[in-house]
Amino acid sequence: MATTCAPCGKTVKNSEKSIICAGKCRRLFHQTCLKLSDDNYKKYCSDNAQKWLCRREDCVDAPNLKDLVAVLTKKIDDSTTSLKKEIADIIASQTFISEQYENLKSELSELKERVNDVEAREAPTMEFKTELAEIQQYQRRNNLIISGIPETTNEDVFQRLFDMAAALKVDLLASDIDAAHRIGKKTDTRPRRVIVKLTNRWKKEQLLTANRWFGKTNKRTLLTSDINYMGSPTKIYIDEHLIPMMDGLAKKCRDLKHQDKIVSTFVRDCKIVVKVKKEDRPTHIRSEDDYYKLLLSLQ
């Protein structure tokens, strides 16, 4: 009978817990070498102990081995069947996605052709609209639109303009003004704007430059108190008289500036000027098409 432990090769003392393989090898094993818990050790060493077999091939219980192989084989077959189904589903999904991708490519190609066709048809119309807008704007090249000048009954609009020019330190004579009048429906909430048509563009630029200089030196906008109006001071704005389309584009560009998408925008000589970055060259916005191109460049 073996007296040494098969795994460690040391002699098994009587005081040490050990177990003998019930198979053909009849080898001896320390409980600690087998890493058997006390509960499992008792199962094999009690009066009604179960037979313990080591893992040698000639010691394994053949019927139990066959059962184990059968169980493992079934698990492998089940896993293989499930895996085959998953692979089939993946292939079907990939085929569907490929078909959808090809359909989308075809639809996108058709859409591009339609867009190109529409653009080709509308190009002359867009060019005509731009030229017409430039002609209309040119007719306003000597105009200013002024907001915030107080409105009174039987007022002298020319005198209001003279007071405004004096506050800006600009010599404005009656001969410099071709026409001046208010526009829009009269309300009690705020004064109507004043349209001024000057006799020459140089005088218009002089007033605009003086207004910008007033803002820089005084750190504020021109106020009604600056033109000898005794009521509560309100702001006065002097701008170039843009046609509705250009006025809308100027507002959109100012919105881009407020959203920090461009560094600056201003109107000079009835032209909208935009700078996307500080180091960039100025860009002129002449039409809706120019504005949309600007938006695309910001993406």
Automatic annotation (TrEMBL):
Please provide the record's keywords in A-Z order: Coiled coil
- Where does the record place a coiled coil? 94-121
- Tell me yes or no: is Coiled coil among this UniProt entry's keywords: yes
What InterPro entries would the database entry show?
Answer: Transposase_22 (IPR004244), Znf_FYVE_PHD (IPR011011), Znf_RING/FYVE/PHD (IPR013083)
State what protein this is by name.
Uncharacterized protein LOC113214941
The scientific name of the source species is Frankliniella occidentalis (Western flower thrips)
Question: Coding gene?
Answer: LOC113214941
